TrEMBL record:
It comes from the Bacteria. This is Sulfotransferase. Residues 247-270 are annotated as: Disordered. Gene3D superfamilies: P-loop containing nucleotide triphosphate hydrolases.
Length: 320
């Protein structure tokens, strides 16, 4: 019987530091951060996404890793195009945030997936298995951040999943979304904060269903004490060793094979883990008030203050 693929899946909303967190953990032996794996099909194969470049700097179709992964899943270019189009359809039909409760119901055994959903879940497993085999990885880190994907993973027999719910202050993510970032377009503050609320609520449902396989982490705690937080995370997720954080909160990053994500994924060498507080003074008061109002139901739960310049208390551990 084939061993289950170990996956650490990062969920939550975008612009929360998942690329850096994944790349740092990906430096552990036998651990590979594949970025936002869901976009391999649209970005790499169909060319309908925002960026076809692998974290190694090559085009995804030319990358030595992803070209082999894709070749193992389809016999020729026509088959690959059909497979990619089918995956995009399946993702829209079964793995959007609105589908999180349905995927959790199946993962917990309360309902049975229909044939089309079952085929979607089988396609997820096949992709993770192929990626792990080509990369020679014991653990895959996927930072796609779709709560419904995370929910589905918890019920797949071929996957041993841990779900890391990464959170950042909603005003910080809203400020980041106001600015286009390389190939990532800007987003209206109201829309991005509404997504922040929806994605985090859906991610919380997973923790309620699978408390031992779920962990919540604030970005602010990660950058404040990276060595302690990373060591605790690695132990919880059963990753080998402890991430090396040097003096001055510096980590040394090598090559990765991430599928899309923050453009910073292309950085190599020493990288300092530091807070990004530009939003505290850069976000207009009116915009901060709007974002605060939209995210208000979750602010206290995640210990974020009403006023952006106030400091929230630290937590002793990254769980919550």
């Amino acid at each position: 019987m084939k061993a289950a693929v170990k996956v650490l899946y990062i969920t939550g909303w975008c612009r929360s530091g998942s690329t850096l967190l994944g790349n740092v953990l990906g430096e552990l032996p036998g651990v590979e951060h594949v970025g936002e794996l869901s976009y391999l099909w649209s970005n790499g194969v169909l060319r309908t996404g925002t960026n076809p470049t692998c974290g190694c700097g090559e085009d995804l179709l030319d990358c030595g890793v992803w070209s082999k992964v894709l070749a193992s899943l389809a016999e020729d270019d026509a088959g690959l195009q059909a497979l990619a189009a089918d995956w995009v359809r399946r993702h829209d039909a079964h793995l959007r945030t609105r589908h999180t409760r349905a995927r959790l119901a199946e993962a917990t055994g309360r309902t049975e997936p229909d044939l089309d959903v079952g085929a979607t879940l089988g396609a997820m497993t096949s992709l993770y298995e192929a990626a792990a085999e080509v990369l020679g990885a014991d653990v895959i880190i996927d930072s796609s951040k779709f709560p419904a994907e995370a929910a589905a993973l918890t019920g797949l027999p071929g996957i041993d999943a841990r779900i890391l719910h990464l959170i950042r202050d909603p005003r910080a993510t809203a400020y980041s979304w106001l600015r286009a970032k390389s190939y990532i377009p800007a987003m209206d503050l109201r829309r991005s904060t509404a997504y922040w609320t929806g994605f985090n609520i859906a991610s919380e449902w997973i923790g309620g269903a699978f408390p031992r396989r779920y962990r919540r982490l604030r970005y602010e705690d990660f950058v404040a004490e990276p060595a302690r937080v990373l060591t605790t995370l690695a132990a919880w997720a059963e990753l080998p060793g402890a991430p090396a954080v040097g003096p001055g909160k510096t980590v040394n990053l090598g090559e990765n094979h991430t599928v899309t994500g923050n453009p910073d994924r292309l950085r190599r060498g020493p990288v300092k883990i530091r807070p990004d507080d530009a939003w505290v003074t850069g976000l207009a008061r009116g915009d901060a008030a709007v974002s605060t109002a939209i995210a208000l139901p979750l602010l206290a739960r995640y210990r974020y203050p009403l006023t952006p310049n106030a400091r929230a208390p630290k937590t002793p551990t990254p769980g919550g």
